[in-house]
Amino acid sequence: MIADFARAGLLIVTLMAAGCSESTTFEDLSPKADKQLSPKLVAEMKAKGMERNAPILARIFKEEGKVEIWKQKTTGRYDIIATYDICKWSGKLGPKFIEGDRQAPEGFYTVRPAQMKPNSQYHLAFNIGYPNAYDRANGRTGSNLMVHGACSSSGCYSMTDAQMEQIYAFGRDAFKGGQTEFQIQSFPFRMTAANMARYRNDPNYEFWKMLKEGYDHFEITKVPPKVDVCEKRYVFNRVTEGGEALSPTGACPAFTQPDSLKMAYQSYQSTYEAAFSSAVNKSSVAPKPTIAGLKEANIVSDWTRKRARGERVPIEPPSLEADGSVSVTSRMGRIDSPAGKRMAALEEAEAAKKKAAEDKKRAAEEKAAAAALAKAEKSAPAPAPAPVTADAGQIAVIPPEAATAPEQATEKPGLLGSVRKRIGNIFGS
Questions:
Q1: Catalytic residue chosen out of the listed positions 156, 217, 230, 252
Q2: Which of 11, 122, 239, 399 could form a Cys-Cys staple with 150, CB 3.0–4.6 A?
């Protein structure tokens, strides 16, 4: 029965996709986009009962740093054919909230032929389709989120060029075989009982529980789940009684599911819940950093905007701590870009202008002091004759300074200090 539902589900997805497919050709691809899969991979596909141009599905796991490619077998079910280490992904565990938060998305996404980028500046790429219906319903923003090569990420999933050539080839061949879209399932981690127990107190936990239902359906059926959104939530493998379309922000209508899937899911959940209870407080692996919701997303987004303008900012994005404080790295830097160079030039010009003003002010003060000294020397009375004393027939001359100023004040440094000293000497102060 489950196999029957799997095949039926696949047919439903295919029929739904046919109405919104985008036609494209691969005639003008760059040479790197036309590279063929290795004979070894082709042999492995054949051994698993997979046609070369059969449909695919991709799964991404952030914490484990893996991208999996699954391919449909002649039975209609999918099996894994390749696993790749993610070269780089930015941000933390948790979904993407807004443009500039540097988060790599989590959720269920769709790639169509028009989203393939054979001439990407990042070697090869495809757009994962963020924001999807769920993201838009929840006010989430962002654009151009990719799986790409070049091993450099600011919110994307970045692979090595060699890895990307294979991943791209899997998608290209599936489209040539007639698949109109393939699904990407992006998760924070493998959604096992042990991992869910580790993150049970995380602010993103409820979101991850929602994703887990789709994860579980695929684990049970080995067929990409039918994904819809209503009441701003994902729903999986549901069929409306009246066949009406769902509104992502509207109320969820009455649904039906095949009894075989319900029974299999209940059995799966019973096993999971027992394992979850056993895993609570037993894990020795600490949770990884996760994004603290929209508040942290806004903080990072502001950092991104300043960085894009070329301002000097901390090298790493700021982070919102559990106590509400914001931590930043002490090392500062500026993006090496035209914007950064323009900002550096502006700051240097402003610093030069400020220094010139300070130099001008100091020169004016010194000029005024010198004028005051000249005036004082001109108007000062002539010094009195030096007193004389006689001692044993000799005459001693006592300098006026000694007669009028038994002790001098401490000399002040610089021209102004010298001027003040000379004026003081003239007037005997």
A1: 156
A2: 122
Q: CA-based Rg of the chain, rounded to a whole angstrom?
A: 37
Cα separation of 356 and 200, whole Å? 60
State how far Cα 196 lies from the chain centre: 24
pLDDT tens-digit readout, 25-55: 444 457 899 999 999 999 999 999 999 999 9
208 versus 414: which is more confidently predicted?
208
**Active-site residue 148, yes or no?**
yes
Listed residue (313, 418, 320) closest to 373, CA to CA: 418
Q: Which one of the listed residues 87, 123, 148, 230 is annotated catalytic?
A: 148
What is the Cβ-side half-sphere exposure of residue 347, based on CA atoms within 13 angstroms?
Answer: 11
Residue 14 has pLDDT above 50, yes or no: no
DSSP codes, 261-287? HHHHHHHHHHHHHHHHHHHTTT--SPP
Tell me the Ramachandran region of residue 161: left when phi exceeds 0, alpha when psi lies from -120 to 50, beta otherwise: alpha
Q: Both tokens of residue 237?
A: 């493998």
Selection from 62, 37, 38, 338 nearest residue 208 by Cα = 62
User: Has 156 been annotated as catalytic?
Assistant: yes
pLDDT, position 407: 46
